[in-house]
Amino acid sequence: MASTQYHDSLSPDVARQVELLKRQYLQLVDPEELKMPAMGTLRLPEAQAKIFDNMFNDKLRSFPSPKRYQFRVLKRIVDAVELSIVDPEQDDISDDLAACLAQLLAQPLVSASVAAQQKSFVTYTAPSFATDASEVTLLEARSLLASSGTTGLRTWEAALLLGTYLFSSAGKYIVQSKNIIELGAGTGFLSILCAKHLGAKSVLATDGSGDVINDLESNIFLNGLEGTETINAAVLNWGHMLDDEILKGADDNRSYDLIIGADVTYDGQAIPALVSTLRDLADRYPKIIALIAATVRNESTLRAFLHACGQFRFRLSNDMVGLMY
User: Fold this and answer.
1) What is the pTM of this model?
2) Alpha-carbon distances, residue 297 vs 139, 161, 235, 284, 301 (angstroms)
């Protein structure tokens, strides 16, 4: 079965199911948690061809997924296709998928413990089912904390939440043509999103870890933004005096309009320093606003953050939006 001859014949519903599977796969969602296409979709030759090209054809993917992950996902897909077969004379597993699985089976795959220590490409797609939906690709260590204890080597749920909001009409209005500073940028997902897809005038991605900033600069390169004036990365330690050289960069007259931060309130001990830095930025740029997204892991920590903001007389609002996928 050729892998490309059927693509144009996909119905909108089948195309949507296959596209959702691809997006989950590129985001390295656990194979057992993948939302699989319907049985009727999986046994279609055109759907299998599209799945192969979208996910397992290394000639068409610039950033392939780890081999161990590919094997686990493909094994689940092939098992599901086998279950979907109604007429063995008419229905079959595509040659491309079968050959790919055989090839992966023949390769020595790293153990789960080794795989957990390795960095992998993770691609996040905008909340739109358009075929040309915006993507951000990052190199992440999804199961690993750096030796210093930083959490900045993977993208967390609150960043995806805030990314979804920024893709809304209201969010795009806030970002477009603005100078933005991100606190606790980690992998740089939000900063890259704003610089690459949302029309920000400039973005300064900051984090307290030099190692994280080094990886963030690599992610800027992966997304074709290296060497541009649109985005820069720098170490910024909360609670310390703000560095004019870092804030201004090459533009002595730069004035920031927006602060963004995601999952920056998880550590209660860091909250006073975080809010102090927010206050310093607000004093320096009186018209600046801040968008902070948080996953509530500890309600007392969130209350402490809100209380500290109240002490500095920040005006607060609260919006809930859906997760980016």
Assistant:
1) 0.90
2) 25, 15, 26, 32, 8
